[in-house]
Design the sequence.
């Protein structure tokens, strides 16, 4: 199965103070960097959007991006490209990742963890 990386992020004060043309340049660099990975079939964008605050126990971030990658190592390229585009300078970012599992595989891991306690 694929390796999945989810990123949640919110703008820092620095982003809010930057003029729109600079914001557009930063976004364009991020798009170009990540599009090159997608063009090489190294990553697949699953979804991106604004986090719905009405969901119970929602995280305190504004946006999300979810990627599917072939192997765990490639997920490092996503975070590297975001760093190179200065994204982390303007946004508070949390990265979450793991191997995508089917329901029986997930249940097996959760049960094994419970038995270890």
Sequence:
């Amino acid at each position: 199965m694929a390796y999945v990386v989810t990123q949640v992020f919110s703008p820092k004060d620095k982003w809010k103070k930057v003029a729109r043309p600079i914001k557009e340049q930063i976004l364009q660099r991020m798009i170009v960097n990540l599009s090159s990975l997608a063009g090489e079939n190294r990553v697949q964008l699953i979804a991106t959007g604004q986090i719905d605050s009405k969901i119970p126990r929602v995280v305190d971030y504004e946006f999300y991006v979810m990627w599917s990658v072939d192997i765990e190592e490639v997920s490092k390229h996503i975070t590297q490209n975001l760093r190179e585009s200065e994204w982390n300078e303007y946004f508070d970012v949390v990265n979450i990742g793991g191997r995508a599992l089917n329901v029986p595989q997930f249940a097996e891991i959760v049960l094994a963890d419970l038995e270890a306690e």
